[in-house]
Amino acid sequence: MSMELTLSRPTTRRKVKVLVAKIGLDGHDRGAKVIARALRDAGFEVVYTGLRQTVDQVVAAAIQEDVDIIGVNQHEGSHVYIARKLLEKLREYGADDIPVVMGGSIPVVDLDVLKNIGVREVFLPGTPINEIVDKLLRIAEERRSRREV
Amino acid sequence: MAKLYSREALEEILRAYREWEENILPQWLSRMPERQEEFTTLSGIPVKRLYTPADLKDYDYMEKLGVPGAYPFTRGIHATMYRARLWTMRMFSGYGGPEETNERLKMLIKAGETGLSLAFDNPTLVGVDPDDPLAEGAVGVVGVSVPTLVDMEIVFRDINLGEVTTNMTINPPAPVLLSFYVAVAEKQGVSYDRIGGTTQNDPLKEFIGQKTHVFPPEAAVKVAMDVIEWSVKNLPKWNPISISGYHIREAGATAVQELAFTLADGIEYVRQLIARGLDVDEFAPRLSFFFDSHINFFEEIAKFRAARRMWARIMKEWFGAKKPRSWWLRFHVQTAGCSLYPQQPWLNIVRTALEALAAVLGGCQSLHTNAFDEPFRVPSEFAAKIALRTQQIIAYETGVADVIDPLAGSYFVEWLTDEMEERAWRYIERIESLGGMLEAVKKGYPQREVEEAAYRFQREVEEGRRFIVGVNIFREEDVEEVRRVPLLEFNQEEVERRQKERVRKVRSMRDEARWRRALDELRGAAERGDNIMPYVLNAVKAYATIGEIMGVLKDVYGTYVEPPYY
Amino acid sequence: MVTRDYVLNLIEKAGKGDRRALGRLLTILEDVNSETAWVVEYLASRSRGAHVIGITGMPGAGKSSLISRAISVLRGRGYRVAVITIDPTSPLSSGAILGDRLRMQEHATDPGVFIRSVTTAGLLGGLSLSALSMIEAFDALGYDKVIVETVGVGQSETQVMNVADTIVVVTMPGAGDDVQALKAGVFEIGDIYVVNKSDRPEASKTYEYMLFVAEKGEIGRGGAWRPPVIKTSSTLGMGIREFVEALEKHLEYLKGSGEKELRLSSRRKMLVKLLAEKIVVDSLNTIAEAELSKLQGNVEGFYEKALEIARATGEKLVNLRIQ
Q: With a CB-CB cutoff of 8 Å, which residues 64-83 of chain A face chain C?
């Protein structure tokens, strides 16, 4: 009998990887950039797509980068349209296990609409960053523990 | 020399101040400590508890202030200011398709407005057609969709362009939208000397805020200068540029950065135009400005006053402009969209009122007040009306418009005006050392500064060093009332469908040969480095769409992709 | 646990074009250890001889934009292209903003292009080991061109760069520092030199200088290959075809001269070395952690303690078997 020789896994776990996306033509990127920085400072790996992305490009990036969370920042009023299309596309590519969160200028009346579409969390302007970081960590952890790997 | 205070007076005042500081104040402070260890403006300028003439020690009245309507214009560009004519209440509007916006404009004209201000949707702002994949879901959302001359004709159906002036918030596609406007005027038989209005056409700030950039910086500036040069020579009543600090501020800049970067943009444009062989006094009176009015009351007032004084100096002393008209800093103000929050949204009415008051006390020429539902959507009519009425209350009830520059002489306001100016000069010097604003933008300098300021502000809010009522103090959890805020509803899908259909129809019905020739000629002109305006106008008249014209220009100039500045 | 079946299933799916599976597989390769080493070996055994291109140069030289332009031309020639971009990590928080793919996003939805960003801190297996493993994955899965982009500083980045088939050094006009760096030997390893942003007025000076250095044979990796110097502008799309042509010529040269085999071999040798390093370090860490936690108070005699841990590690390694 050979000895049981599995080496122990490294103690630090892989960092949480988040895609921060701007979809459509909206140029208001102050929020997206502040969030990207804050997440970096909290130790996340942040993939920033830059401005003017299509839903297809965002889904493709999320899949290629194998991110834990997709964060979408919208300020131009088409958040419901975009959320619906994004979740549809994720399903189409078998990637709907990646949670989607949104932030930006979003009417309170749309919060339930977005949740019903499948958006995991919506962060309105004024939400403390620490709260966002905590929630994202929780979402990522929960998902990793559920995963077979 | 017109020193305000004699040495003897200053000495006596200083003595009294020290006496107060040493003997009276400590007793009070021991019983009642101050709320904070340090008080700072939004730009981070520390402010003392009290200002006295000692803070304006060598203050030279004539050099710093003078009289309204005269150099250095600190007190206002007109001798009469609001006693003769109130500022223009210019409310930025537009949504949906050209039909909806035409209705809205006619309604405004009927209500007595002659100064129109058009908001365009995102596809128009970046110059793509409504059937472009990137336009999906965005047609008509944040403004009106105008992809062809046909659409522009509908926007101004039954409106005589010789009788109104129109402000167009448009940047990279400014040559296209201006050409649409001129072509419609021509069709109406309005001569060029009667066409009045403004194109925002400020390329550099696009890279710092707003971010509707299309071409790389160098080409973007070239195109904007084409518009200015052509307008100066052809449209005597047109303001071809509105040099904008608003978007820089909204992207997170401090008031000092807004002031400095806006003037630095202006300096770059003046140099570019002089390099084209234009006389400074030929174009300088056509330059106009656009600032933000944020919530830190006195800092904003100081900013406006400092801006006027600085620009007058720049034009007179740096560029040797001779006409007093060339020294004027004429500016439009919009209250700060970024100071509004979705939590307890009606509080935004109060914020906007205070910001508007600062703009008026700062001597603006025109003003847009934001609606309280701005954090959610394009304003409802109800919310827009409150915003307009806010200006009317300031104008007609408060009496603040009855005296010119009423805060002048306040020890604090004058000290802060000087302080803003000094800090802004330091930024301008730094930008000059980088080779001017175009080079600085290419190097990412102002972008980095603004991103850092935005992040710093956010941290300050998080750490409770900045207060926002309803957000980090006096919070309310109940959102039921917020849900009942009535928002603007319109059938966006229907507008998008209609706009797609129309652009396709325009493409199928035009004279193919003429259209092709016009675009080829435009390409040739762009490649040669000629002024593109006449060629864009020609292409527009041949019914080339905004997406096609911008497509040709992108082929020649390239497309800008913002690098990640961190 | 990464089970064998799970990984084989991922590889099979990825081979059939399932990009989600490939994304997952790459995540496993971010953490190569003795449990997952077999995956790398499995992939390497399926190598199809991809052309591995390392692209390096100072930040701001426009590497990502150049790659994006080159991808269009390579796609036109029917190649499938994979890109690994290596981003630096924030030294403060060990978080990172990965922004390089931003300039290549126009290719994101192209089924023949796959872009993956990695950060120096995110890779538990060590940057070099992870990047080399990813190269094997892309090669095995039919990507013809595998491009690795780095700023080219740091030991591990240089390690990866040195075992590429073709090394491209990107510089830009007016970058006096680049020329200094060149003289200092940092960038002398290129097979191809690119002067990007050549639409700028100062470009010809930089170009002439580079040409001069190249012709004198002061730069390059030796052998019969003379490194060309190419002027490009990613903004205007100038010189991109010439650049791709040079890549192709170099590949031809590598094949004709037998160098391609040599470079593959040195890449594999590097893999062996890095894996060995990894196994030793992992064993050492396990033992050290246990031993060090026993130490209390003012620790004395550390040399002896260190030897003890090293010996124990050696013993553990002696008994190690491939599972």
A: 64-66
For B85-92+201-403+414-476, CATH number?
3.20.20.240
pLDDT tens string B394-407:
999 999 999 999 99
Residues of CATH 3.40.50.300 domain(s) within chain C? 39-259
Report the share of chain B in percent with pLDDT over 90: 86
Phi/psi class of residue C102: alpha, beta or left (left: φ > 0; alpha: ψ in -120 to 50)?
A: alpha
A33 touches C: beta carbon within 8 Å = no
Compare all CA atoms of chain A with the CA of B492 and give the residue at the minimum distance: A78
A13 burial via Cβ count (<10 Å: 0-12, 13-18, 19+) = exposed
Tell me whether residues A41 and C92 touch, CB distance under 8 A. Answer: yes
Q: Can you give the pTM of this predicted structure?
A: 0.91
Residues of B in contact with A36 (CB under 8 A): 566
Q: Are A22 and A50 in contact (CB under 8 A)?
A: yes
Neighbours of chain C (3+ CB pairs under 8 A): A, B
Is the domain covering C39-259 a CATH 3.40.50.720 domain? no
How many contacts (CB atoms, under 8 Å) link B and C? 16
CA distance B409 to B53: 10
The alpha carbon of residue C103 is apart from the nearest alpha carbon of chain A, in Å, by 8
Query: Across the beta sheet with B165-168, what order do the strands follow?
Result: B115-118, B165-168, B196-199, B238-239
Distance, in Å, from the CA atom of B112 to the CA atom of B388, rounded to the nearest integer, reads: 14
Which has the closest alpha carbon to A109: B495, B380, B474? B380
**CA closest to B487 among chain A residues:** A107
Number of helices followed by number of strands (H, E) in chain C: 11, 8
Question: Distance of CA C16 to CAs A26, B126, B228, C21, Å?
Answer: 36, 39, 56, 10
B446-497 pLDDT per residue, tens: 999 999 999 999 999 988 899 999 999 999 876 777 888 888 888 999 999 9
**Per-residue pLDDT tens over the stretch B340-364:** 999 999 999 999 999 999 999 999 9
Separation of alpha carbons C80 and C76, rounded Å: 10
Of B216, B562, B564, the CB nearest to C97: B564
Q: What residue in A sits closest to C7 (Cα-Cα)?
A: A149
Burial group, residue A92, by CB count within 10 angstroms (0-12, 13-18, 19+): exposed
Taking the C-alpha atoms of residue B75 and residue B71, their distance in angstroms, rounded to an integer, is 9
The answer to whether residue A11 sits within a structural domain is no
Containing structural domain, residue A112 = 17-146
With CB atoms and an 8 Å threshold, state whether C97 touches B216: no
Q: Does A131 touch chain B (CB under 8 A)?
A: no
Domain count along chain A? 1
Q: Tell me what pLDDT residue C289 has.
A: 87
CA distance linking residue B319 with residue B310, whole number of Å = 13
Gap between the terminal Cα atoms of chain B: 48
Closest-CA residue of B relative to C64 is: B563
